[in-house]
Amino acid sequence: MSEKILLIVGTGPGISLNTARIFGKEGFNVALISRSMESLKKYANELKDDGIAAKGFPGDVSSVESLKIAIDAVIKTYGKIDVLLYNAAAGKPGKPTTLSQDQLVDDFKISVAGALTSVKEVIPHMENGTILLTGGGLALQPYADYASLAIGKAGIRNLAYSLHQELSPKGIYVGTLTIKGFVQEGTYFSPENIANTFYSMYENQTDTEIIFEEK
């Protein structure tokens, strides 16, 4: 199959859908993973209205088994993955001492561990592939009221660098986009601007990390 395949894990209406649209317009088939089948159908239909081939696969990133089953279904459908975007994150609001151990671990599973599971599942089906991880400014400047999310973003940044070291000799590019701002339509931090940056990372494959900030 000659079409390139983009897999988005942690699909939502903002960054994910805009990234799907930009890659789709460049000829990619798009596979979407999210917990809600209803949302997946909505996103797939929106993309199809734009002339983009898209299909949803239900999967829960907090569950290793559920995520593996979903990615396996994607592989069985398309036979390969060219680009993986991991865009899932979780963070119960609260200062560090208000968080329970379970809350912190549960959030970390979604923000970081799910990314590693996704990467490990797609690597055998990638040739000169690209792995993109959505990062955040909290990795660089933690904010006490969002301690759990900040720890997750620090984790995904760290994972991106170590994956880059491991996988670049195998011809797989790993990059993270560290978004230093609040994602909002009509601003510099619009989902469309972020999606365009992800596409340029895929095209250029030079930096392990791009800091996305308003100059």
In terms of topology, how is this protein built?
Blueprint: E1 4-9, H1 15-25, E2 28-34, H2 37-49, E3 54-58, H3 64-78, E4 83-86, H4 101-122, E5 130-136, H5 147-167, E6 173-179, H6 191-204, E7 209-212
Parallel strand pairs: 1-2, 1-4, 2-3, 4-5, 5-6, 6-7
Helix pairs in contact: 1-6, 3-4, 4-5
Describe the overall structure:
The protein is an alpha/beta fold and 215 residues long. It is built from six helices and seven strands; from the N terminus they run E-H-E-H-E-H-E-H-E-H-E-H-E. A seven-stranded parallel sheet has the order 3-2-1-4-5-6-7, sandwiched between helices. Helix 3 runs parallel beside helix 4 and helix 4 packs parallel to helix 5. The N and C termini lie far apart (42 Å). The mean pLDDT is 96.
Brief summary of the model shown:
It contains six helices and seven strands, in the order E-H-E-H-E-H-E-H-E-H-E-H-E. It has helices at 15-25, 37-49, 64-78, 101-122, 147-167, 191-204, and strands at residues 4-9, 28-34, 54-58, 83-86, 130-136, 173-179, 209-212.
Describe the structure using short key phrases.
single chain, 215 residues, alpha/beta, seven-stranded parallel beta sheet, 6 helices, globular
The tally of beta strands, per DSSP, is 7
- In N-to-C order, the SSE pattern is EHEHEHEHEHEHE
Category from helices, strands and their pairing: alpha/beta
Instruction: Sketch the major β-sheet.
Output: 7 strands, parallel
Name the strands of the widest sheet in spatial order: 3-2-1-4-5-6-7
Mean pLDDT: 96
What is the 3D form? globular
Strand content: 15-25%
Helical content, roughly? 40-55%
How far is the N terminus from the C terminus?
A: 42 Å
